[in-house]
């Protein structure tokens, strides 16, 4: 790859538009060329700024209501329909899980500002992650990128996320990283890291915590604040907050084991 | 009257439900006027619904909707140019009243100053570059989807993006330098290091 070609390939690299071969060449070039790497970092930072702030505007509710009524779109299914962005990741449908199956302890888990109607506030937050996990299993553990290295996976997320992916391990106690997905849940972009063990799967969701009320829970030095767990249909979720991020880990594992896995990953 | 097959109707509904905010944001950043953005979204979805029969079932509904929306926004900009008695050219935006009181959306709570500067920098871009930035960087359409939405070749999308990035880097240099200049802590993942 000559210099001119390298420069012309830089923006498509930042925009994830290069073929695998060109991408690898670009990455090799970036290792050798400090100036080019600086330019790449600057462009990536610009993408982050634009993405982070550009997506804060949402459509006015009256407009949404009018349009959805007109075209007979079920507004209550928006959050389930808001799956991964098809442009980057391919179209993937979301299963709608059985409603009202949350454990009683979940009732306090409400979304303050991310969901639009009061009727959906009290139940959708945790449900959303159970549903997504069920979908992940039902779709034969479909992922957007197969990757066992957390460094490379963090690189892949790059500017796709509106936050910096925190340090997370590639292996828990018994389950190891197999890849990641970019999800669009609760009206925000989040990282979904998939781990597989011999006897089950687990998914760690990481997102900005702004606007999401975390249920009361205990403080756990290895994890963070408000650590709580929930059960639904044989699945367990562990929820905690650390710094400005919300972590939700969902698995078939029982809570004690899930807690141990979580500590191994982020502790 | 029925438009399109049940399958295309369902695809339309799913895509609209998923992309509704993105469609509105795109219209808003093309027009920087909330009322006009709302009109553009409604008009374009009406038009798409009426023309569902023409949608190729193998095609990309998302890109198709953005294409119709983009044309609707251009119509609004043309009308505004006529009202202002200025020639319309999507490569210029300065004379179309984009820098009005509505440049700043309501949502920038976390960092108003940065949000405002970013919004103003985007608003200062010519309409064609602004559309490319909105679709590719903010809404994350692929180059191919953006090209389809804007009815231009992929190379044109790339060149518009490139020019827009150069201008934005200049306008936002303070913030970029601030973020860029800070070395990430040692334990931070290497996403900005680009050395794998």
In short:
Chain A is an alpha+beta fold. Helix content of chain A is 39%, strand content 22%.
Describe the structure.
The complex is a heterodimer of chains A (267) and B (196). With 267 residues, chain A is an alpha+beta fold. Chain A has nine helices and eight strands. Chain A has an eight-stranded antiparallel beta sheet, sandwiched between helices. In chain A, helix 1 (3-14) packs across helix 2 (20-32). Mean pLDDT of chain B is 80; it is low at 99-110 and 184-196. Chain B has 196 residues and is mainly alpha-helical. Chain B has eight helices and no strands. The interface between A and B is large, with 63 and 64 residues.
Number of strands of chain B: 0
Largest interface: A-B, 63 and 64 residues
Please bin the fraction of helical residues of chain B.
Answer: 55-70%
Give me the strand/helix succession of chain B.
HHHHHHHH
Summarize the main sheet of chain A: 8 strands, antiparallel
Give the number of helices of chain A.
Answer: 9
Secondary structure class of chain B reads mainly alpha
Distance between the termini of chain B: 57 Å
List key phrases describing it.
heterodimer; A: 267 residues; alpha+beta; eight-stranded antiparallel β-sheet; B: 196 residues; mainly alpha; 8 helices; disordered C terminus
Q: What layout of secondary structure does this protein have?
A:
The complex is a heterodimer of chains A (267) and B (196).
Chain A: H1 3-14, H2 20-32, H3 34-54, H4 61-70, H5 78-81, H6 86-89, H7 118-138, E1 145-146, H8 150-157, E2 176-185, E3 188-197, E4 200-208, E5 218-220, E6 224-232, E7 235-242, E8 245-251, H9 255-266
Antiparallel strand pairs in A: 1-2, 2-3, 3-4, 4-8, 5-6, 6-7, 7-8
Helix pairs in contact in A: 1-2, 1-3, 2-3
Chain B: H1 6-31, H2 34-50, H3 61-84, H4 112-123, H5 127-138, H6 143-150, H7 154-171, H8 173-181
Helix pairs in contact in B: 1-2, 1-3, 1-5, 2-3, 3-6, 5-7, 6-7
